[in-house]
Amino acid sequence: xxxxxxxxxxxxxxxxxxxxxxxxxxxxxxxxxxxxxxxxxxxxxxxxxxxxxxxxxxxxxxxxxxxxxxxxxxxxxxxxxxxxxxxxxxxxxxxxxxxxxxxxxxxxxxxxxxxxxxxxxxxxxxxxxxxxxxxxxxxxxxxxxxxxxxxxxxxxxxxxxxxxxxxxxxxxxxxxxxxxxxxxxxxxxxxxxxxxxxxxxxxxxxxxxxxxxxxxxx
Length: 218
Known about the structure:
Its cofactor is Mg(2+). The chain is an alpha/beta fold.
């Protein structure tokens, strides 16, 4: 019994990644964060001092990936926050509002900050508030071309409908793991059996907390 007590606590994840959300202050970055499950009681979603922080855990190809998500304020005086929190960042979500052309036209400024303080990190361009497409001021094709020009993945998302939120973080996680050479530790080019495909389909539709509960039952 004493030996069990002395054991270090088992990690609740396989990989840990730090991501930044950057963009103007009114593009809805906190809306995006609010749609993600809060994955750690020791670091709940909080805001203040021009930044918000949240952790969540996602499943990626059967592996648990814990994300540390930092939302820097979009106000110019908080550019120093980007400089501080970009250290060690492994991915960036560049967010604009599809109903606000000015937020899209200002992306170059944020991209310059990111490249200066976190050069070469994977980036995903996110067009927020797709549920307001009837007020659209930024064409999807314009955003796709911008993303392609700067070698970014691209998603239009809607926190209201929970559309493409998780997908954008999964894609950024996959890009970050590929860049750091970690994805090769579990990905394989072999043809999957029907049983493996079924297992992956079940895992993809099950929350990480439900899977942990299943492991405990086993």
